[in-house]
Amino acid sequence: MAAGRKTLIRCLTYLLVLTIVASSGCAAGATSKTDIGPGGGEPGVLTVSSTAFAEGETIPTKYCATGVDGGRNTSPSLAWSTPPEGTRSILIAMIDQHPIARRWVHWVVADVAPSVTAFTEGASGSLSPPARELENTSRGAGYSGPEPPDGSGYHEYVVTVYALDIDSPVFPSAPTAASIAHAVDGHTLASGTLTGIFER
């Protein structure tokens, strides 16, 4: 009887430990920041487009920085599909993904009203509040067009549009790609991308 009781106690203790571990795991999962879509599911998908260039196509030189022959540093038009219910602001970021660029930030626009679904060509510098343009990696506010080093090959410039469940994400004065990712983490209801390429 004593041996049986010890075995029973040992089994009950083991089950108790498993229950505690499982509960801890669930609690950790519940508090970790993850992007959620409407109704708590996966984030939705926004369709992003431009009249300046199509997905995977070359960005015309007029949208490049003035250091590029023919560059006018004109921000391209952008359009995106209607964000999901619960969206409180839109964030737009344009980042160079080439390894040599180290995720150079060319454009960041935060606090765009959820009713806005497009920017006209050349909109940078004249966007209506509450939208705000932050500093790019070149340390200038607003749009900074592509200007990759000569001979460095094709650079991929990824424009990402985020539908957020907050009014205003928190950034440093000149956000990096990492700080942008951190700011939208756990707040993205839907997102979409448009990629243009350019080389010199």
Question: How are the elements arranged and paired?
Answer:
Elements (H helix, E strand, L loop, with lengths): L1 H30 L12 E2 L2 E2 L28 E3 L8 E8 L7 E9 L5 E2 L12 E2 L21 E10 L12 H8 L3 E11 L2
Parallel strand pairs: 1-9
Antiparallel strand pairs: 2-3, 3-6, 4-5, 4-8, 5-7, 8-9
Number of strands: 9
Elements, N to C (H/E)? HEEEEEEEEHE
Contiguous helical run count: 2
What is the percentage of strand-forming residues? 15-25%
Instruction: Please give the radius of gyration in angstroms.
Output: 23 Å
The spatial strand order of the largest sheet comes to 1-9-8-4-5-7
What's the overall average pLDDT, rounded? 85
What is the overall shape? globular
First-to-last CA distance? 85 Å
Question: Would you tell me the structural class of the helices and strands?
Answer: alpha+beta
Unreliable stretches, pLDDT < 50, 5 or more residues? 1-34
Helix share of residues? Answer: 10-25%
What's the story with the biggest beta sheet?
6 strands, mixed
Structure description:
With 200 residues, this protein is of the alpha+beta class. Helices cover 19% and strands 24% of the residues. It has two helices and nine strands, in the order αββββββββαβ. A hairpin with a 7-residue loop joins strand 4 and strand 5. The longest helix is centred in the first third of the chain and has 30 residues, at 2-31. The radius of gyration is 23 Å and the shape is globular. Residues 1-34 have low confidence and may be disordered.
